[in-house]
Design goal:
Distance between the termini: 35 Å
CATH superfamily of the largest domain: P-loop containing nucleotide triphosphate hydrolases
Number of strands: 5
Shape: globular
Bound molecules: adenosine-5'-triphosphate, magnesium ion
CATH architecture of the largest domain: 3-Layer(aba) Sandwich
Number of helices: 14
Structural class: alpha/beta
Helix content: 40-55%
Largest sheet: 5 strands, parallel
Number of domains: 3
CATH class of the largest domain: Alpha Beta
CATH topology of the largest domain: Rossmann fold
């Protein structure tokens, strides 16, 4: 995968570690750093291996308050199909066994004790049954939005997985967006390996540029692209597409003007991601982008109608999450000034 070639190779090496036990990897990185793409590349490779069964989920911020939302994404279809799980193959007339995440009619009513203990036991039984048929790969994207009960299951699994032919790989976004910080903090140390996706190097930007533009760009262009974006994959990719669409020669002359051609789809992509960073970040980022330069808190307060502490908290969160870059602001400005808005 160009742009993340080095990291993808490192991940391949970890996953190819000989031995029958569990391998667990946490892929960490900021917004748009390439976590999902790295995860997808692993899944695509694993799906080609007939001896590996793949189950995957993507935690949804709208479901982080639901019980077992991620677990259900992982196993629901498998359990419904029934053939390979303890929940299928029942004899005609026998009662259906409830899936592990379903409330137990006859069990203790306290969901934090009896119900969850039974669910964790059943989920572990399901996992051991699945690995008895071959290697199982469990992948969870956007772990930062996982519900509490699924995180508890993940910790339960990782604590007991050492000898199982299991791969657990999860992608975790930045701290600002974590809906369940305590549960995440407890799960993170249980992963054997961590892969952190930092800013792309000049070399990585160069290889991505070659792929997008169809030719190797001049080094000054590559450096300008990396400097303007901090090496953020989402932004680098957008600037390269913008440069290509501009029809101008990609040379040293274009380098200082590289953020003039941000594509129209970057603004919505940036705003969607900014929304989850912290309260009021969207309004604050839009005001900063439209006003241009470095507007004072007083001006931002007047323009947004927010209070001073709200603006300050949102602005700090945006800086921490690296959203105050020129292309991000240019993209938001473009989204604002587009007539269809
Ligand atoms: N190999 C690639 N070549 C070019 N662009 C890519 C590549 N992989 C990803 N991108 C671009 O980078 C963006 C960010 O990648 P990705 O979605 O994998 O990051 P992420 O860290 O999962 O982002 P998020 O924080 O939104 O979950 C993609 O939307 C795509 O535009
Ligand atoms: Mg992602």
């Amino acid at each position: 995968m160009s742009g993340r070639h080095r990291e993808s190779k490192a991940l391949e090496r970890v996953l190819a570690t000989p031995g029958g036990g569990c391998v667990s990897v946490l892929v960490q990185g900021g917004w748009g750093s390439g976590k999902t793409s790295v995860l997808r590349a692993v899944l695509a490779g694993a799906r080609e291996d007939a001896a590996t069964r793949v189950v995957s989920a993507s935690a949804d911020p709208l479901e982080c308050g639901l019980r077992y939302a991620v677990v259900r994404q992982l196993f629901e279809r498998l359990v419904a199909d029934g053939a390979d799980s303890p929940y299928g193959g029942r004899t005609p007339g026998s009662a259906r066994r409830p899936a592990p995440w379903e409330p137990r009619p006859s069990g203790p009513s306290d969901p934090m004790t009896g119900q969850d203990a039974a669910a964790l036991r059943d989920l572990h039984q399901l996992a051991t049954q699945l690995v008895s048929q071959g290697r199982l790969l469990v992948a969870v994207d956007d772990l930062q939005w996982s519900d509490t009960t699924s995180l508890r299951w993940l910790r339960h699994l990782l604590h007991r997985a050492d000898d199982l032919p299991l791969v657990v790989i999860a992608a975790l976004g930045p701290e600002d967006a974590r809906s369940n910080s305590a549960g995440i903090a407890a799960a993170v140390p249980l992963f054997q390996h961590r892969l952190t996706l930092g800013g792309l190097s000049d070399e990585a930007v160069g290889s991505l540029a070659e792929e997008v533009l169809g030719e190797a760009p001049e080094p000054s262009f590559t450096t300008a692209c990396r400097n303007a974006t901090g090496g953020n994959l989402l932004l680098v990719d957008a600037l390269l597409r913008g440069a290509r669409a501009s029809g101008r020669p990609v040379d040293a002359d274009l380098a200082p003007r590289i953020t003039e051609f941000v594509p129209a789809d970057l603004g919505p992509a940036v705003l969607t991601r900014i929304e989850g960073v912290a309260p009021h970040t969207t309004a604050t980022a839009e005001a900063v982008a439209v006003l241009g330069g470095s507007p004072t808190v007083d001006l931002l307060t007047a323009v947004t109608g927010l209070t001073q502490p709200q603006v300050e908290d949102a602005a700090h969160a945006l800086v921490r999450a690296n959203w105050r870059s020129t292309p991000a602001s240019a993209a938001i400005r473009r989204a604002w000034t587009t007539p269809s808005r």
